[in-house]
Amino acid sequence: MNRLSLAALGTSALLLQACMFSPGMNMDTDRLIHEDSAEESLVEMVQITPKVLAQENAVARDRSVPAQLLEYAPENYRIGPNDALFITVWDHPELTTPGGQQQTSSANARVVRDDGTLFYPFIGSVEVAGLTQEELRKIIRDRLARYIEQPQVDVNIIEYNSQKVTLSGAFMEPGFRAINSQPLTLLQAVGEAGIDPKRADLSHLSLIRDGEVYTLDYDYLTSNPSEVGNVYLKPGDKLHLALNDSRKVFVMGEVERPSALPYSTSRMTLSEVLGTVGGPSPISSSGREVYVIRGVEDLQTQKATIFQLNAQSPSAFILADQFEMQAQDVVFVGAAGITRWNRFVSQLFPSAGILGTAVRVGSDYNDIRNDN
């Protein structure tokens, strides 16, 4: 056996091992789909085409403002417990400012009790909860008329404490917001509380009203023509702006900067994702192997979907710019063939010593034979 024959034997051993290993960062889609029967497969491969984009957009959730929220029309403010009132009886300072005119209005205010009643001189305890300012003014005027000739009465609310809405989540100033005589809109409440741009998921603003939860895409509604400006808040409403902790897209494979990308807006496209991480590697990536892996909650009843984009196609940029990502999507860019082979060789470098060993054995064998 000569040196060449032994070298060939070593090469054959190396190639045999090559058949037993995966060639690096490459998604073996054939194995994913065909390893089991189609019914038992965990994934469904879908080529990104204009038709697929149209289907995806058709099943997108309705982002309009729910009709139930638009039906509510605020009425005149009604007095409630803990509201502070300043009651003026003209020409009767002893009734208007019992603490003295030198005191502030708040010091002379009359606070509605927790049970909704208010004590006032001459007329005693009055049920005021649920009354408007005008209704209370008439009651006080009519009852004082028994003791004062033609009393001139005015009622003002100087502290609104009974009707509130609650804001929680990714607001700069979460907490309570009082509803006063001026109707409070959803946009006003969010504006006053301020949005934390680093923590907020602008696509998920929840309004909880009377036990019902309404989810609003705040980013979409404020970026496009909508009726969100006509949504008024009702006493007892709760606004919760979700955090974007779980709203991420994971990018891996042959890209310049693999990373987890958080996003707070309602829309992020595949082209934006690839652009943010520097795009597919021009040296090692395969233009045909750009995948978006979208999982499901229950793999026993549903199939995960793997969308494939052929980035070598002239229309790829248009398709990528229209393909909308979803939270927790995984973008994977596969490696080019030569890159996979180079990685495989480097992974099996110790095994490549078989070739060197074979060459050395052949050399020693020939030297011994020549000496004899």
Explain the overall architecture.
- The chain is of the alpha+beta class.
- 31% of the residues lie in helices and 24% in strands.
- The chain has twelve helices and 16 strands.
- The strands form four sheets. It has a six-stranded mixed sheet with strand order 1-15-14-16-12-13. Strands 8-7-11-9-10 form a five-stranded mixed sheet. Strands 3-2-6 form a three-stranded antiparallel sheet.
- A hairpin with a 2-residue loop joins strand 9 (200-209) and strand 10.
- Helix 1 runs antiparallel to helix 12.
- The radius of gyration is 37 Å and the shape is rod-shaped.
- Mean pLDDT is 80; it is low at 1-25, 31-40 and 350-369.
- It holds the Pfam family Poly_export.
